[in-house]
């Protein structure tokens, strides 16, 4: 069993639609900096009665055959390289951070627990204070893509079609265009669970390397890019899709 204790649902209080008491674990990412090893603690709790806020991580596992060790409850614990990279990016030098991460918070050796927790993932992401989407380390040019996203989101109502086109389809725009292509080719976009994890969230933040931006601004930017037919410039299979999130929904 290692660091994992048995999860047991609490008795629900009341009979309303949200009166559930799902047992789950959160992970406390201990403060650290630089190349210090990642160290975490498990925090058993009950979804629906959590007295503190947690952030849910949405990410691509990466190559599951290549694993690295972190410390979980003081014991060596293996995770994928991509998850370790995400934890280094999310770790604070001063304060611990409370997260929910499927590969750490669910006992992957207990199939019955895995099957049960997978059915409840919608609730984990729905009631998280924030869903953090990790798109990887990015490249030296990733900031060009993020600058474009923020520009399109901020000025969405005042941008002409011609101006938006100039941001993407001129010679000077090639670094930005390539950076955006690279960003949109992250393995995260091809995951089965993207819609569930993203669409039910009350708040979303995207992280790529040391850059962070909101899910709302990303949705606005993607909508604009689809409108100017940016998809026509992408290889088949890499077309942009506007993925809605809770904060992006419009009134009817």
UniProtKB/TrEMBL annotation:
Residues covered by the Heterokaryon incompatibility domain: 54-197
Stretches that traverse the bilayer: none
Highest taxon in the source lineage: Eukaryota
Pfam families for this protein: HET
InterPro entries, alphabetized: HET, HetReg/Transcr_Mod
Name of protein: Heterokaryon incompatibility protein-domain-containing protein
């Amino acid at each position: 069993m290692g660091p994992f204790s048995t999860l047991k649902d609490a008795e629900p209080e009341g009979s309303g639609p949200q009166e559930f008491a799902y047992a789950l674990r959160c992970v406390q990412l201990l403060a650290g900096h630089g190349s210090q090893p990642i160290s975490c603690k498990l925090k058993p709790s009950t979804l629906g009665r959590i007295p503190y806020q947690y952030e849910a991580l949405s990410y691509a596992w990466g190559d599951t055959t290549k694993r690295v060790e972190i410390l979980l409850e003081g014991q060596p614990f293996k995770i994928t390289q991509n998850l370790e990279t995400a934890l280094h990016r999310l770790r604070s030098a001063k304060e611990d951070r409370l997260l929910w991460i499927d590969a750490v918070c669910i006992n992957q050796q207990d199939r019955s627990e895995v099957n049960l927790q997978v059915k409840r993932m919608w609730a984990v992401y729905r009631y998280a204070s924030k869903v953090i989407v990790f798109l990887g380390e990015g490249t030296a040019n990733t900031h060009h893509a993020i600058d474009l996203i923020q520009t399109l989101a901020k000025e969405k109502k005042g941008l002409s079609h011609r101006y938006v086109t100039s941001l993407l389809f001129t010679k000077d725009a090639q670094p930005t265009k390539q950076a955006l292509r690279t960003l949109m080719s992250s393995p995260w976009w091809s995951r089965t669970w993207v819609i569930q994890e993203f669409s039910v969230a009350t708040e979303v933040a995207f992280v790529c390397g040391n850059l962070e931006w909101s899910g709302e601004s990303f949705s606005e930017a993607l909508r604009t890019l689809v409108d100017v037919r940016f998809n026509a410039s992408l290889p088949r299979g890499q077309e942009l899709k506007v993925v809605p999130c809770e904060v992006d929904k419009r009134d009817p």
